[in-house]
Amino acid sequence: MRAVVMRGRQLVVDEVAEPEPGPGELLVQTLACGICGSDLHALQHGDQMVEMSKVSGAPFVMDLGADVVMGHEFCAEVLDVGGSGGAVVPGDRVVSIPVVFNANGVFSIGYSNQYPGGYAERMVLSSMLAVKVPNGLATHLAALTEPMAVGRHAVERSGAGPGTASVVLGCGPVGLAVIAELARRGLGPIVAADFSPARRALAATMGATEVVDPAVEPAVAAWQRVDGAKPLVIFEAVGVPGMIDAAMLAAPRGTRILVVGVCMEADTVRPMIGIAKELDVGFALGYTPAEFADTLRSIAEGELDVAPLITGTVGLDGVPAAFAELANPDAHCKILVEP
């Protein structure tokens, strides 16, 4: 089958072996797969990703010396259920948490050498994790279940509620997913900050109460202008060195800071700032199976309008160019691969 292979820090469209489902697995045809910022990072800084996976105790670590087929935000059609049984049948469309369990361990779809991701014509999924797409929900919208579930989990972890206000630093796909979930829950005000005019416009579309260019007005100052009374939750969704410390410095006393931007580099904070202000700093990664399934339901029922996030589609041959285009925050938000 054809796939986009990460090979020696390059993306190559090539023929790869057909995946073969084992017990409890599904063979599926990829219909649409989003390009994630983590994929862009893996291509340029895969060695850092592997090292951080090792030191953090992740159960799966890819070998960059062998081929990797990325892609973990997908919607697919079931081709064969094999001996897996379960609730889905051939012809069903499914989404899934991008993880496979088998007798040899746990594997990350899209970041392993054993299981190809969605930048391929076909994949293998764990039947126990596959969730059937409701009838009537468009494939390209269902494919955004995974990134939107990240935003849902971040809001859950943050403690944001009816009595809080939120500041979202960074309006890339993760920050926008956080904004959309806060808006879905009716939690506000929501102040969003990004240097990119295009991303600020998307933040407003997804439900931000106020959008600011941090070069013109600091995000916390904008919160003080539009509210300034409710306890504040800050979502750090940029993921570059210095952002956590900057958020701590800007935060009012008693603020909760939730870090959801993935920074792979060493960073420095000044603990005395957090101590003096009695700040709570937490971190979020991924989502639970229940959050993933309910995110799909929210999209299907129109509670989350994810269509504005999709700014382009490409076939397999267009993936290398799409990676380059996504480096420009004003050009695209989410590009879908349609193998």
Describe the structure.
This protein is 30% helix and 25% strand. It is built from ten helices and 17 strands. Strand 11, helix 5 and strand 12 form a beta-alpha-beta unit.
- State the total count of DSSP E strands: 17
Structural class: alpha/beta
* Low-confidence segments: none
Distance between the first and last residues' Cα: 10 Å
Shape: globular
Main pleated-sheet profile: 7 strands, mixed
| Average pLDDT reading | 94
**Helix-strand pattern, N to C?**
EEEHEEEEEEHHEHEHEHEHEHEHEHE
Q: Beta-strand level of the residues, as a percent range?
A: 15-25%
**Helical amount:** 25-40%
Number of helices: 10
Give Rg in angstroms: 20 Å
Layout: helices, strands, pairs:
Elements: E1 2-7, E2 10-15, E3 25-34, H1 37-55, E4 73-80, E5 93-96, E6 99-102, E7 105-108, E8 122-126, E9 130-132, H2 139-142, H3 145-158, E10 165-169, H4 173-184, E11 190-193, H5 197-206, E12 210-212, H6 219-226, E13 232-236, H7 243-250, E14 256-259, H8 271-277, E15 280-283, H9 289-300, E16 310-314, H10 319-325, E17 334-337
Parallel strand pairs: 10-11, 10-13, 11-12, 13-14, 14-15, 16-17
Antiparallel strand pairs: 1-2, 3-4, 3-8, 3-17, 4-5, 5-9, 6-7
Concise overview:
This protein is of the alpha/beta class and 339 residues long.
Please name the defining characteristics of this protein.
339 residues; 7-stranded mixed beta sheet; 10 helices; 17 strands; 30% helix; 25% strand
